[in-house]
Amino acid sequence: MPEINDKNKGNVRIGDVDLGEFPLLLAPMEDVSDPPFRKLCKEQGADMVYTEFISADGLVHDAMNSLKKLEIFDYERPIGIQYFGGQVENMVEAAEMIEAKNPDVIDINFGCPVAKVACRMAGAGLLRDIPKMVELTASVVKSTGKPVTVKTRLGWDDSTINIIEVAERLQDAGIQALTIHGRTRAQMYKGEADWTWIARVKDNPRMHIPIFGNGDVDSPQKALEYRNRFGTDGIMIGRASIGYPWIFREIKHFFRTGELLPPPDIHERVRAAKQHLSDSLAWKGLKLGVLEMRRHYAPYFRDLPHVKTFRARLVTEMEPEVLFGILDEMEELYANMEPETV
0.70 cut: is pTM over it? Predict the structure, then answer.
């Protein structure tokens, strides 16, 4: 058994939502964390999942893409719907639409760093206007009976790291949990995430809501190290889960036993890719289901020898039956290779 130095014993709760002891959360990721992907991560042990982030303006103006992202399913619970925006009126109206879908949590994104969001004073852009961030948050909290949570970053850049103040003021505004990505907006996704700032928020005696850390956790060993070093209430995992939903079960197994599970074999990889493709077709239809699945093949089959030929076929073929056939070919070929060559 590994030594675990938890500062807080017992189950973590967001309002009435019980997440168990030290939950692992699937991060909201644009064009990734849709229902087919969330289902796989849930099956592999994610304690809570989040939707892709959704535009409040898009919901208010009935944009079909935004409305589609509101679809959630009971087998995903507990699930949070995450959204973003910069106008109080639209954020409140959109919150009412989200509440009607009955998620377990409504999460506000104050962390997205991409220019089309942040430079329009939404997402991470609101780290430059804390009073407005607080006003938006308080208005959403007052408008809904659902627990409201926030995901944000350390600050806009290294000279304006303000996460301790932000955490206190968001808690005062009524949020019931906070996830912190350990980078500034200026860093985007480069460099190392600085979890020492996340630990400072957790250690702040004023804070009493759950604090989740996010950034760079990509192995069971690192998950245990960060759990012990930084004392968060749980970990949110994003990029490390893309093409590898097994990261959740591997971390949990390591926490319990101190042993590393063997990586998924070719049968399990193909089975996951087939399920993902099948569910994508069912949820998105033929064209989008095929096209939007293409970004996932490379991660599912990374590091396999001579995989480029298969990948080229997978990302150019439009017929589902042919795609499933290619996956069958891969399974047969790699299953018959000597173990040390795979």
Answer: yes
